[in-house]
Amino acid sequence: MIASSPSNHPLGDVSNFTRTGKPLDTACARLKSAGLRITRPRIAIIEALIRRDNPVSIEQLHQDLADDACDLVTIYRCLAVFTELGLVRRCFFHNGTGLYEINLNDSRHHHIVCKTCGKVERIDASFTENTERILCERGYEQVTHLVEFFGVCPDCQKKASATRPLSSLITP
Amino acid sequence: MIASSPSNHPLGDVSNFTRTGKPLDTACARLKSAGLRITRPRIAIIEALIRRDNPVSIEQLHQDLADDACDLVTIYRCLAVFTELGLVRRCFFHNGTGLYEINLNDSRHHHIVCKTCGKVERIDASFTENTERILCERGYEQVTHLVEFFGVCPDCQKKASATRPLSSLITP
DNA sequence: GTGGATGCAAAGAATTTGCAACCAA
DNA sequence: TTGGTTGCAAATTCTTTGCATCCAC
Predict the structure, then answer these.
(1) Which tops the pLDDT comparison, B32 or B16?
(2) Cross-strand pairs, A110
(3) Among the CATH numbers 3.30.465.10, 3.40.50.170, 1.10.10.10, 3.10.450.350, which is that of B10-104?
(4) How far is the CA of A111 from the C1' of D8 (A)?
(5) What is the pTM of this model?
(6) Rounded to 5°, angle at Cα B96 from A37 and B77
């Protein structure tokens, strides 16, 4: 969608930046429609997220990028913006440091994280008990899971605008 | 169980330290059977966790304790030990900072966190989709949830002792 | 041209480490 | 008595903020 006519876009044919041109275009369109600018660092970050297509740490992301592609601070800022936009989803299963995952089509999936090596795989089943069984069949051992819910409680709905939202609380 | 005869225990009747003597005894027994020492700071921390009976931040826990009860560093160290032991469970739904919850009887429950005020309530339903409906009936809005699974993957089982576990990965 | 975005440096917050003193067993 | 624990201070790591410069629109 974006840069359908390459010479029009200041960064040229955006699809050249990645082997998978389509997802990048989708991401750029989301940025554009939110009134955000499409910059070289942002493209680099989105590309890296698309290539991984799995939750990554900010540190890992920084290593993935070319040395001069983007400052670490910019990664922090962009991921904050992308998360706000819903273009990126933040994951919480790691040691408290954020892991970020590209989220182009709001696919509701879960993850299985190896307790030993930390490897992350995607799983699509939606019921937890059933999923644990499936995972055992797949050869995983010591399977546990984590479930948390988020919502706005009745009290806060009453107070509505009186209280300012907890900015520090990042939810799915 | 512990300190059934008060004068035997160096800290006296342990149940005096809290209004709910029983849970504290259980916790102390777990410490003892793991070969860990029952100290004044540890008792204070466990008491505070029991009083809360809900996930708390380290900062909050530090405020809950009497001024000279325990150093902040000691709280960090104790919670790490308690988590390792399974006496405490670490929660991840906050902004990346750890929240800790006492876990005396391995009760498998989930939480509902208010997106606005951060209030945490316990919920016992086990299936997620069903639970979202229940929460809506309870008056919550904008309900979402987070599910992650943990286990040891087949690869790691083969390598077994060859690889050392990811110490940074704290799982339920 | 203009305002949003970036890079650099520096501040701030969260967490860990080193080490001597302490105290539960 | 002895080794696990603690407190204090300082080091690290992680994340945010300020501000001048830059560049997408």
Answers:
(1) B32
(2) A123
(3) 1.10.10.10
(4) 42
(5) 0.77
(6) 150
